[in-house]
Amino acid sequence: MEIEKSQSPNKSTVQQQILVEKNKNGNLGLFNKLQKERKNLPIFKHRQGLLDKIKSNQISVIAGETGCGKTTQIPQYLIEEGLNKNRMIAVTQPRRVAAITIAQRVAQEMNTTVGNKVGYSVRFEEAVDKNNTKLLYMTDGMLLRETIVDPNLSRFSIIVIDEAHERTINSDLLISLLKQLSERRKDLKIIIMSATIETEKFANFFETENIIYLEGRCHPIEVFYSKKPHADYLDAALNTILQIHFEEQDGDILCFLVGQEDIEDMQQMLEEKIELFPKEAKKLNICTLYAALPSHLQLLAFEKSQEGERKVVLSTNIAETSVTIDGIKYVVDPGLVKTRKYNPNKLIEMLLVVPVSKSSAMQRAGRAGRQSAGKCFRLYTKYTHDTLAEFMLPEILRSNLSTVILQMKAIGIKDVKGFQFIDRPHEDQFIESIENLQQMNALDANENITLHGKEMAELPLEPIYAHFMLVAFATNPNSISVVLSAISLMQVENLFFIPKGAKISLLDVLLRFQLGNSDQLTKVNMLHQYYLAKNKKSFCKENFINQKNIKKALEVRQQLENYFLDILKKRSKKNQKQNQANIQQQSEEQQIQEELAKGNTLKKLQEEHKTAIQQEINTEEFISCIAKGLSVKAAKLNNDGTYTIIRSNIQAYIHPESLLFYSKPKPDYIIFNEVVSTIKTYLRDITEISFSDFKEISK
Ligand code: CDP
Ligand code: MG
User: Fold this and answer.
1) Does ligand 1 have an atom closer than 6 angstroms to the CB of 105?
2) Does residue 592 fall inside a structural domain?
3) What whole-number distance in Å separates Cα of residue 128 and Cα of residue 116?
4) What is the CA(424)–ligand 1 centre distance, in A?
5) Which stretches make up the Helicase ATP-binding domain (predicted)?
6) Across the beta sheet with 374-378, what order do the strands follow?
7) Does a structural domain hold residue 161?
8) Separation of CA 220 and ligand 2 centre (Å)
9) Which tens digits make up the pLDDT trace of 570-616?
10) CATH number, position 158
11) Which of 142, 178, 378, 458 pairs as cysteine with 138 (C-beta 3.0–4.6 A)?
C-alpha cells in the first residue's frame, strides 16, 4: 500500500524514486521475514511432492491439519511453478472474512498489495485487477454466480475449493458443477482442500485416488470439561477467561462465541472487569473476529502479543478452521454454533444456536496446540460431549433449496432432481422449494425458469428479497428507493448498540424515527436521515447507531442499485430488439415485461433519481409493496395475542425488539422478516398491513 501511495503523480520523479526505494526496503524487511516463516510451515517440505501430484492429475484432493499452510501456500506454489499458465487461480472460501484476511496475508507474502497480483471477491465488495490479478480468493457464492454468466469459468486455469469439509451448499454445488466441467475442460485443474475430515468422500465423488495427506504440527492438548451444565454460557466463558488470565502461564486465549452480538457483549463485560484489575496484573488485550467487522480491525486479532501481555480473541466459528491465529495456547469452547436450519414441515428457515459436532469440538481444541502444548476448556460436561453428533449435517440437507434451485435453473440445469449431488437432499426439500419458487413466479408450471426468475437470479439476494424488489418496482416504481433501502437494511445485523447500563432502551431509539407501524420503515427513515446528516459520527452517537453497520447498509444499497439498474438496462435493450423484430405474438411474460418497461425506462428513472435516497417516504406505497413482495411472510393475530404464520401455521410472538411489541391494540395482520427460535418463537422486523392487503395476498 505504501508503494502505491508514494507513486502519487504530484511528486517529482526523483522524490518518488527515493520514496519507492525507502518503502521497498521497509516492505523487504517484512517480506524476508515472511519468506522465512513460509519455509517453516509444515507444508513446505511437501512442496515438490505436492506439485508433482498436482501436475500429473486433473483433480487433487488435499487434506491437512488446520494451520499447516494449505490456503496460503499451495496457490503460491502453483504460481511459482507457472502452473496457472497466464490465467487466474480461484480459491474459494465459505466466509467473506476469510477470503479478505487471507488475500491480505498472501499479498504481503508475495510482496504486493491486495487488488494487484492477489485479489479478493466477496458479495458487495471486491478488490481485483482484471489485467494483473493472478490469484483470487473469493467466497464460494461468488464463484457460483460466475458459473451463471460463464459456465466454463474460462477466466481460471485452476480452481481450488477450500474448506470443502464445511460442506456449505455453495461449495457442495460447485464441486458437483466442477465434476461436470472437468469433462468439458480437460485443461482445468481442480483442487479440493479440506481439514482432515470427509476426505475420502470427495475422492470417491470425483472417482480419483489422488488424495494427498499433509501431516500437521499438533502438540498435546489437555481438555477440561465443566462439572455441571451452565445456565449462562457467556458468564461461564467470562469466568473461564479471567481464570486463565490469572492462573495460567503465558499464551493467548481464543474464545468461540456464537455471533457478533455475543462477541460485543463479552467484549464489554471483559472491559468492565479489566478496569477493576489490580495495578500489577498482566495486561489483557481484547480482539474480536467476525464477518461484519471491518478488515483493519480483524487484522488486529492476528498481531503478535507483546512480552508480558496476553491477548484474548473473541471469535465466531471462523477461527475453527478458516483462519489461524498464532500464539493461541488456551481455547474456551462453549460448544455452540449459530446455524441455519430449515424445517421442511413448517416451510420455514430459522437461525438457531445449536450444539457443535464432535469433529468441530476437536478442531476447536486443536487451535490450542499449534505452537506448544495447550489447554482447551469445554464449557459443557463430558456427558454432553459424548452425546454430540459426529459431524454437522451438510448444509444442503438442512436448508431451503430455493436459492440453489433458482441458481441451478439459471445456470441451465433443467433436471435439478437428477443432478449429481455429493449428498442428495430429501425429495420434500425439492418439492417445497420448487413450489416456493413457483409461487414467486420464478419458475413456471413446468418448472422452467421464467424471465422474472432469471432477473431474480441476477440479484445477489435470497430469492424472496429479489422477488420483493422486482415486485415492488412493478407495483409502484416510485417505491423503489425505499424498497432498496429496506432490503439493504435486511442484509445487515445489529444496527444499534446500546451499552449496558445506558438509561435508554432500543424502543426509545426506534420511537425517534418511527414511521408508520413498521420496523422496516422506521429503519429506512433512520438510514435516510443518517445519509442526510452533516455530522454522521455524532448522529450515530446520539442515536446509539452502530456506524460501521449502517455504513455497510449504504454500501449494500449502492451495489443493489447498480444491479437493479443493470436489469433495467437489459430490459430496455430487449425491448428495443423486440420492437425492431416487430413480434406479433406476445407471451404473457413479454407483456408483463413491456408493461414494466413502459414509461419506466432506465433513462427516465435515472433522470428522476427514483433510486436515489429521498427525504420523503411514502408510507402507504411502501406498505402495499411489502405486502405484495413479502406475502409469504404474512402472519395473523390470534385471540391469545400470538400470531400464526399463514404459510406454515407456526405460532409465534412479536419480538420484544420490535416497535410493534408495544402497540395496543396489537395489529391484526403483519409482515415479518425473520423467525428466531430461542425458548419461544419470535417474529422480527414487523410491518402492519391492512385487511385489504392481507385479503389480496392470502387469496
Ligand atoms: O489453510 P491452512 O489451515 O492449512 O493454513 P493457512 O491458512 O495457509 O495458514 C498457514 C499459516 O500462516 C498459519 O499457521 C499462520 O501461522 C500463518 N498466517 C498468519 O500468520 N496470518 C494470516 N492472516 C494467515 C496465516
Ligand atoms: Mg485453510
Assistant:
1) yes
2) no
3) 7
4) 33
5) 51-215
6) 221-225, 374-378, 328-333, 252-256, 309-315, 283-289
7) yes
8) 21
9) 888 887 777 777 555 566 666 666 655 554 555 666 556 577 887 78
10) 3.40.50.300
11) 142
